[in-house]
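Here is one chain, start to finish.
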Amino acid sequence: MKHFLIVAAYLLISFTSRSNSYYFSSTLGSDARTTTEAQKQETPWKSLEKLNSILPVLVAGDMIFFKRGDTFYGSIIIQKSGNSSSPISFGAYGSGNKPVITGFSVPSGWAPAGQNIWETTHPFFSSSINTLLINGTAKRIGRFPNFVNSSEQGFLYYENATGNTAISDSKMSGLNFTGGDVVIRKNRWVLDRNRITNHSGNTLNYASQSGYLADKGYGYFIQNHVKTLDQEGEWYYDRAEKKIGIYTTGGVAALQNVRASTVDVLVSIAEQSNIVFDNIVFTGANTHAFLIKNSSNIRISSCEVLFSGGNAITANNTDHLTIGNSSITHTNNIALNATSCANTTFINNKVSLTGIYAGMGDGDSGSYEALLISGDNNLIEQNVIDSTGYIPVTFSGNNVTIKNNYIRNYAFVKDDGGAIYTWNNGSNPPVNNDRKVIGNIVENGIGAPEGTADKSKKYAHGIYIDDNATNVDVSSNTVANCNGFGLYIHNARDLVIKNNTIYNNEVQLEMQHDDIAPNSPVRNNTVTDNILFSLYATQPVAEYKTKNDDLANFGTFDNNYYCRPIEDNAVINTLKNVNGNYIFNQVDLQGWRAMYGKDANSKKTPKQIASYRINEIIGGNKFSNGLFSADVGGLYSYSPASNFTNRWNNGALDGGTLQLSFSNVAGNNNKGTVIINVGAVTANKAYVLRFSLQGSDENKMLDVYLRKSLSPYTDLTDRKLTKISSSRSEVEFLFVPLESEANASIGIDVPEQTTPVYIDNIQLLNANVTNTNVEDSVRLTYNPAVTTNSFALNTNFIDVKNTVYSGSISLNAFSSVILLNKSTNVATTPISQ
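Its structure:
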């Protein structure tokens, strides 16, 4: 003890006199060297154990250097602070690759366990192992059923759930997965990884990872059990026996380059300040590469954080955390989880492959995310975030700026999220202010329907401002190609939505108030100068929906572009509740403007593109009485309110005409339906429907489709919409039945209105057609760089404002333009030969 005190006193004297540099090399170092020797590159110390022994006596300004090309196993426990002018820093010296701090160890002693499974144990293995590499590649943990690229992607569906402790499924009979994990899709945004405490018969009892209940219709799979191993490289870890098992057909020779994460935390910082890490690689953390608590002025610069089994960087109650010019990749759960952290700066980083494996991230709602940051005065700028299992950026707090980030490929493990997301509907939430989401480029929200109750839906939104969120400036962003809403405003208010380009999403702009946050209506929003561009006829340009009758109060809308170059007709959907009845309308820009006084100066697409070309008409009209020369035979009509009639009219259009009228307007969004028998239609053949139409200017739309004439009366095709107006129009639609039907009909749904609707000259013709690929005529060009760039053009284009471009186009940093081929045929109806 006396000798220890003498050595400690000596170290204290030598370390407190002035700041120094200390060198470490795992290949050339020796921990037996003196403090004086370790201040020379030629005589460094060797290990992280030695580093941790000297850390308590470092002084402000001291610098620790690791030799480039060397690897150091273990953890660093920061126990001393620097000051604002003289931080304690950790960096690299010498030449070559950056030094590596690793949590990976090399398992050995592999023994065969049968069925191509090899196992080994080690007393120093952790209570869990979250990452395993073979030949430098991260391997999935074993699972049953296997992951396959199909509609199910390896999910089973349980038959019954008991509270939050058990599920039952007959497919589990005869198996026993006790000790493994059951991964349950509790809902669209929760994927819990639960320890199986007992498996008996059809029932799995588990210890839930969250408070969410298993929901009927959702899925599950089993993992981390020896009986799940049947594919090359799959593995499991037995916590009780501290045993790893790997499936390989290559024998023990295939296991020479296995690495397992056995150090939980690589860098631990608690209640310290003014610490810098620069030019170092951190790899193989079992739970956290960095764990930072109650600290300040921590800087991570030009570093790489690889293969983190949990989170790459976790920070709690930390002020002035700065992460810049670094890369974070292959993170099982969250790349940066900064909770209650103020003055965080995350700038010019690359974040990739975060939470990409179902079941290998954490459960509950905040998981599988790239950046999860809460607190005030935070900045996320000029980062590339690629391939995130759920949400790339979640933010909350005041004075937050998310600017000029390039985000792509996300929400493919969980969904019902966005690329950039905020929410504020907790208990007694504060009113947040001064938040900016500006100049970001977002693309490819993928969606994760597998394991859910509705596999037909994908909810991968672009920018998502959710329940009770307020005071966000969403400006000058580009959002494209998402299997969800491009810009989703859900129970949020006091927003500025300006100068955004929203392109080729399921819906470009969705604004909705519902019962999830009934006391947070959509209010006081400014929606101006946005380009909302739907590429396909199936994509509404905008949807405005409310649980009340208050669409007029959503905010100020003007100078927007509502564009859909194919079938630019009913581009806006509205839904409101009037006296307990929901009323749904599909309208064009003119109808939206007339109904709610919005978008007085907004515009439509500058040109229409024909959706098909008719090459040849095959046969005659399938409705022989289409001219209505003498009567309206061959059809009938009905309505739920029994107020819809048809009759022959002489002279309203061309001689005899079909007249459709309502004896009274019952309200509640009622429609009348005309059924016109046309005989047999064949699956996947093209049928062109033509008719003349005239009515009144009540901003109403006809629904037109092919259907079965007899029970179950289901639709055979998608539905087309055309506007009724007092000006005569010539309508033409292309229909392709999904199945053959011997007794088919044309269905026409007519919304209730006060004046008659006239239809004449009906033809349904089998045709040979060539469909238009609209992507040949429209392109989105964007610049995800910090400098202005020029892009070559192979022909002449116009933008939505009808500006002509030829040769090339110059785009400012993080800007975009939608271009339409100037030479593409313009058509308000399809082109016919």
